[in-house]
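Minutes, methods subgroup
Present: GH (chair), OT, SY

1. OT presented the first of two proteins processed in the latest run. Sequence and structure tokens recorded below as shown on screen.
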Amino acid sequence: MLAETRSIILIVDDSPENLSVLNGLLQPQYRVLAATSGAAALQVANGQQKPDLILLDVMMPGMDGYEVLARLRESDATRDIPVVFLTALSGAEDEERGLQLGATDYITKPIKPAVVLARVRTQLEAKQARDWLKNENAVLEAEVARRMAENDHTQLATIRALAHLAETRDPETGDHILRTQGYVQRLANGLRQHPRFVETLTETFIKLLARSAPLHDIGKVGIPDQVLLKPGKLTPDEWVIMKTHAQLGSEAIERVERDMEMPLAFLGLAKEVAHWHHEKWDGSGYPDGLAGEAIAVSARLMALADVFDALITPRVYKPAMSYDEARAIIADARGQHFDPDVADVFLSNFDDFVAIAERYRDAG
């Protein structure tokens, strides 16, 4: 097999006689390149025809074999080429030094043809095996990356489909999920260096939060049409029913979690935003009446995003507010409905939130 592939061997020796002997020994089976100095060896090794194996003399004038090997190992282009030392030095310390520097084998002079051929063949077979494994690993890594990307897209599509399912029950919400997703991500990025949030709002957390945000109103699927679609103000009894969508959403996501063979972090965040995005900083929200830091960070961000979008979106029972009117309401609710720091990021970056709203403005 090796004879058919014609592996390339670079012989490095300052003795023309030694080069001639090794060339005659190896050329019937391999393509042979030769260099008479360390500098020439490095030039050949970095050329277009990369050697598969280097037979390197140790004792050479100028740059000796140890230095050549060190230079080869420093370069990405030549680091993986196996090197076999050829030398008259036979001391154990010499062999140990060569192996420590990265030589794969050590052959003493005067050479024995059968030994050289056997060692060369062994090193070339080992290199072929390493190259094959490296290629297989690259193919495997590419396939794993492809499947992970495919799974990621599938997960995103499933989330979006579920969120749109909830919106079909409430057709006036339009691109609400896209807008609120954008708002939440902008809020999180604006707070990620804040001392109160820096440990929580990591890059991974923000990515998962943006992914889970569209599921915040999934519980509306369980609200009766006569309540959800009522074209007017809800009665106290109807409002009690409407408020159950938070609990319904978190319970549905929790059932999915129980059915999964392994936990998914984004489902945990989705459950938080579904359950607590109507909680208020002062404790007057629902369903659990939580206050302040007891409300999950994810839900605090979702609360502001949801309210802002509700204010600027028309409903059958109300017109849309202007951006400035919505801004004033959120500013007034700072420290009451909303975490003060979350509100501050919104207010100081207000133009960004307007841009997100405009980007995903409902058609018609």
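2. SY then presented the second protein from the same run.
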Amino acid sequence: MKYRKSIVGGLVAIVVLFLVFSSLTTVPSGNRGVLLQFGAVQPTVLSEGLHFRIPFIQTVQQIEVRVQKEESSQSAASKDLQMVTTKVAVNYSVDPEAVNKLYQQIGMDYRSRIVDPAIAESLKAITARYTAEELISKRPEVSAEVKDMLSKKLSKYYMELEDINIKEFAFSEEFNKAIESKQTAEQNALKAKRDLDRVKIEAQQQITQAEAEAQALKLKKLEVTPELIQLKQIEVQEKALEKWDGKLPSVTGGATPFIDVSGITKK
């Protein structure tokens, strides 16, 4: 009888301990707990840490509320009907205060049911507003519009868009060749324009230099007077006279310099 009581007491203790431990639940860091009672979602959202629940009646579904990353590649037609494949990385998170509503209305597969379709729809809608070249030249503007549209779509389902990064726009081979040809033509046209501008500048410089030389020559001609010519002749004769030793050259056959002595005497 004594042993029977001990066994019963032990069993009761085990049951009590089992019930106590079964009533405890832990919500890990970066998660929230959705409290279910007989499968029905309760309004209470369990935060991180230790919580009590009714064993066999209540269960807890964990939902991550950290920032999550989704990468996607979507093909769509641009405004000028060019096929564009866009690679995008999206960072989003679940509203910590609304995880119970998310679980109740969408379930745990919210990524495939909501996030992926929303990314695809937003990319296709915004891509159609721009030409292929504009998608490249206006990437920040395109990214901002995609972010705005995607943010509105996710917010309807208790999710918040953190950031979006358009990693690449990929076009058809024909379009890439057309872009390359256009860039080559633009570079050639720019080089031709630079060469033409250089030729024009050099020609203008030559014209300016010629005009300056002509103006200088004209001024020199204006400065030449009969008196100046006579003065120069006298200066030349004086210099020749200073060098003359009073003897006539002994070598014949050459021209003897003419010195106008009378002009010097009159002076």
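Chair's summary of item 2: The longest strand covers residues 159-171.
Next meeting: continue with the remaining queue.
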